[in-house]
Amino acid sequence: MWTVSDDALVAGLASGDRDAASAFVRRFQRRVYGLARTIVADDRAAEDIAQEAFVRAWKHAGAYDPRRGSVVGWLLTITRNLAIDAVRVRRPVAFDPVALLGLETPSADRDLAELAELSDDTTRLRAALVKLPEEQRRAIAMAGLLGYTAREVGEIEGIPLGTAKTRIRTALIRLRAVLVEESTE
Amino acid sequence: MSVLTCTEVRELAPELALGILGGAERAEVVLHVNGCARCQAYVSELTEAADAIPQLVPEHEPPAGFEDRVLHALDEGRRRSRRRWVASIAAAAAVAAIFSITIVRVVESDDTSNVASGPTATSTSAGPVKPVAVAMQGGPNDTPAGWAYVANGHGVAVSISYSVSSAVPSGNYGIQVTPRKGAPTTIGTMTIDATRGSWTGRSPEALGAGSRIALVDAAGHEVCHGTVPAAE
């Protein structure tokens, strides 16, 4: 079956094509809403954020540069930033960063179902995250998903700032190594 | 020029890539990275990994009708941007018209030698007064809700733009102004739709520093407000 590429949908979105906009929303709405809901833990706020993310994407579609990253990465970064802004004024929110990333249940059935839908990058990153020490996994989830600074991670975890920075740095470098490894294979 | 070494920048690069590095540290690192191809490549790789983290979050089906609501918001945005375009042309035309009228008056007075000191020239050469910006905030945590502007004490423009609309639902709101030593007066109504809305008009009472501007709902409750600061 013929499928329009993500890049082509963004180009259509930028040109004001309503059909392209509709296809763009249909393709990404579950991921955008899922991310917003995961970060803000509130269905109503998540819907507002997801809607605003699509409006922002439409406004900036003309400036999207495929050389700087995938469409889904670009769109989810917009969503994440909006959700983090919302969470900042709602803190403290009870959360488990590891659970947020769906890493807590190594169920074979679920893994198989999810793996079938995930890109290689995502699969490898998930595998790399699972292999990280628990404290690094928490630190990178807090920083990379919820936007906590190293200082905030330190306060939440009850560890010195330097230790928080090291955990975040080590975890991201390991994830980066996975992606670099793949691109050189 | 950046005072950080490549080693120091690489220590901080993960936080830059994750978007959690703030203030002066961020500025220093960015300055270095902009002038160092190797560090730039390193940050780029880390950013790729950082951007992939949100992609690990499980998908979730949005509520029914979500797609229609988004498309409606996009249609509204398109209409609004067209209106803004028309409005900016109209504003430019109005400025040009005022300028033309001023020139015509000066020419009609046939007294070019006195232009700089004559009463007509004094009133026009002063130019438009810079509007005073009023930060509007609303919601349970007083989050930023947009801006209002006051020009010459009476001209009022309100522009509401939420990144998250949950603070104020879509609907019609009264624009209430309260001079520092006066009673509240409603000077108009505005509609907030799909997180945005704007209004322009006049206040019969002069709004100086300390005056309040608020949006009130049908029940008379304030949903967002701001206080006019002292002019610069």
Quick recap:
The complex is a heterodimer of chains A (185) and B (232). Chain A has ten helices and no strands.
Count of DSSP-assigned helices of chain B? 5
Number of strands of chain B: 8
Instruction: Evaluate the radius of gyration of chain B.
Output: 25 Å
Secondary-structure element pattern of chain A, one letter each: HHHHHHHHHH
Helix/strand/pairing category of chain A: mainly alpha
The profile of the biggest β sheet of chain B is: 8 strands, antiparallel
Strand order of the largest sheet of chain B: 5-4-7-8-1-2-3-6
- Please report the total strand number of chain A as a whole number: 0
Please give the oligomerization state of what you see. Answer: heterodimer
Q: Which range does the strand content of chain A fall in?
A: under 5%
Low-confidence stretches of chain A: 105-113
The gross shape of chain A turns out to be globular
Helix content of chain A: over 70%
Distance between the termini of chain B: 33 Å
- Overall mean pLDDT of chain B: 74
Biggest beta-sheet profile of chain A:
none
In angstroms, what is the radius of gyration of chain A?
Answer: 18 Å
Keywords:
heterodimer; A: 185 residues; mainly alpha; B: 232 residues; alpha+beta; eight-stranded antiparallel β-sheet; extended
What this model shows, in words?
The complex is a heterodimer of chains A (185) and B (232). Chain A is mainly alpha-helical and 185 residues long. Helices cover 74% and strands 0% of the residues of chain A. Chain A is built from ten helices and no strands. In chain A, α2 crosses α4 (71-88). The model of chain A is unreliable at 105-113 (pLDDT under 50). Residues 95-128 of chain B have low confidence and may be disordered. Chain B has helices at residues 6-18, 23-34, 37-52, 66-109, 119-125, and strands at residues 132-138, 143-151, 155-161, 171-178, 185-192, 196-202, 212-216, 222-227. Chain B is of the alpha+beta class. In chain B, α1 (6-18) packs across α2 and α1 runs parallel beside α3. In chain B, 40% of the residues lie in helices and 25% in strands. Chains A and B meet through α2, α3, α4, α7 and α8 of A and α1, α3 and α4 of B.
